[in-house]
Amino acid sequence: MEVNNNILNLKDLNVYYGDFRAVKDINLDIPKNKITALIGPSGCGKSTVLRSINRMNDLVDDTRTEGEIIFQNRNIYNPEVDAVSLRKQIGMVFQKPNPFPKSISENITWGAKINGFKGDMEQLVEESLKGAALWDEVKDKLDENALRLSGGQQQRLCIARTIAVKPEIILMDEPASALDPIATLKIEDLMKTLSKDFTIIIVTHNMQQASRISDYTAFLMTDENRSGHLVEYNETRTIFINPKNKKTEDYISGRFG
Amino acid sequence: MDKLRKRKNVISRIIFQTATIAGIFALSILLFSIINEAFGYVIFVNENSPADIYDSDKNLNDADEDELIAILEQNLSKGLIRRFNFEKPFAERDVKNILELVMVEVVNPEIVKAWSLTSSIFGRKKILDTLAQDYPTGNLEFRSWLTLKFLFAPQSSIPEKTGIITALSGSLLLLLIAIILAFPLGVGTAIYMEEYAKQNRLNSLIQLNIYNLAGIPSIIYGMLGLAVFVRFLEPITSGQIFTTTVNNTANGRTILSAGLTLGLLILPIIIINAQEAIRAVPKSLKFSSYGLGATKWQTIWHHIIPYSMDRILTGSILAVSRALGETAPLIVIGASTFVAQKPNSIFSKFTALPIQIYQWTARPQPEFRKVAAAAIIVLLVLLLTLNAGAVLLRNHHNQKKKG
């Protein structure tokens, strides 16, 4: 991997919940405008790694992070870095679709408004909804409550809401695990399109999904102390066809996990 | 085995049903006894019968203005006539007003005996006998003690003329002050405790204290109010430092003191309710707000407060309805039992509905019990309105949340 193309570098990342070390010594270089998948068995710390990238872990009491995450030439855990403005650049889509209990267009505009967006709101709504492949389905009911949409539509609305803030990176925490297969496919297609403009990091339980959509895959596992650590990280094709590590091979061939 | 389980099921169901029925029964008795007192036959005796003062074939109600003024001049002292004329010249008064003056000042009906609703319905014959034997000049009338006049009349020592406007406006002003104090303070505290406070020993201690305060007997709050608002802060609560023209005998026993005390009384209840409301906001909603780069305050203001406001309001309304019925702290603070004038500022002496009811039931004249029953109906209607408002609000917002 060429170094200059990386947007994010995780260096010796350790995350603790109280005394428990959830994630141990993670080193990862995330390439720009690619889809990177984090896979691994339950409890291996992949979601923790994801949440530490936009400092969502700060919101959980008793969390401590060690090591560095370099984004735009600085460590995001530096005291002078403002977590709030960091989250504008590194957006997040959650496992369960969680639109605001407001209208569809308000869902899009709210994030832009609080970030001081002064441009044309209607245009922003249309652009973002088109970007999330939702425009055709909702263009006639932009004032309707977002909670009336189906689960898949809600999740695409959450993606639209995230890209409306124009982040550099979009973190996705199992974005399709609460959806049916057809809605899942739509989300996956959408991610491929989005990766032209955004860097996407996705946590997924679904190995087929990782192999279908991602360019790079990181495989995490727990050690004897239940701490998650990185087993193997490479191009997705290499991981799935020719894994270097025996554990990776066992996992992707479904022998455990 | 199966039979036993079935029987246990039946027995427990019967027990629960009995409990429910007993509760409904008790409530019905309460309502019945109030309504029973508030309506019924009365015998009133006129000081001057209309036939005596109005020398005509017509009814007094049909007399014209000049005739009525003549009646007044015949029967009342010159000084009194002059006073009425001074209050509002007779030329400017309409017939209805003058007729009322005649009725009150000259005819002056006085209730001498009153019956409850049940005895009015089932003991009509006995009532007629009493009328014929004991009050040959009396008139029998079916009277509702709860009238519009009762709602808007000031307090009086004559049962049929007394009203609850002083108590009602006192109570409403008290609640207003209590809400103004307790609502922002309570919601603010709840937001701090839920969103800002770290989990440490000090904060758990504060939390424990809030829970305990909600359970403290209200008379203790009365003592607190007496010591702090009435005595210590007297220059403020009596209004002396704001204006020199306040010239009443309240000495800090004002609406302001009582309202602040009630505010403190409901503060912990509002805090606890608001905390529960804020805790019920889904984490996912908060995270999605933070995930878009919102600050803590933006998240609280745009998402947490709107989402939890219906529950906060419901809890606050229920707390306020508790304050409406509180009597003990007001007695300690020194609610006046007889206030003939509506409170005209927050530095006035005051009385409140429950105080007034208590005072009326303690009077020796049996008619005042009827008056008290009417006042209880007003209090209950107020309480039910508040609670119904809370329920409606909750339903309305629940629908909104579901989209």
Which key phrases capture this entry?
heterodimer; A: 257 residues; four-stranded antiparallel beta sheet; 10 helices; 10 strands; B: 403 residues; mainly alpha; MetI-like fold
Can you put this structure into words, describing what you see?
Chain A has helices spanning 46-53, 83-89, 104-114, 121-131, 135-138, 151-164, 181-194, 207-213, 236-241, 246-252; strands spanning 6-17, 20-31, 35-39, 63-71, 74-75, 90-93, 169-173, 199-203, 216-222, 228-235. In chain A, helix 3 packs parallel to helix 6 (151-164), helix 4 (121-131) crosses helix 6 and helix 6 runs parallel beside helix 7 (181-194). The model of chain A has no long low-confidence stretch (mean pLDDT 88). Chain A has 257 residues and is α/β, with parallel strands linked by helices. With 403 residues, chain B is mainly alpha-helical. Chain B has 2 domains: 37-144, no CATH class; 165-402, MetI-like (MetI-like fold, Orthogonal Bundle), CATH 1.10.3720.10. Helices cover 69% and strands 5% of the residues of chain B. Chain B has helices at 2-38, 50-53, 65-75, 78-87, 95-107, 117-122, 124-134, 148-152, 165-196, 201-214, 218-232, 234-237, 255-279, 283-291, 296-325, 328-333, 353-361, 367-402, and strands spanning 39-46, 109-114, 139-144. Chain B has a 3-stranded antiparallel β-sheet with strand order 2-1-3. In chain B, helix 1 (2-38) crosses helix 18 (367-402), helix 11 (218-232) crosses helix 13 and helix 15 runs antiparallel to helix 18. The chains are: A alpha/beta (257), B mainly alpha (403). The interface between A and B is medium-sized, with 30 and 23 residues.
Summarize it.
The complex is a heterodimer of chains A (257) and B (403). By secondary structure, chain A is an alpha/beta fold.
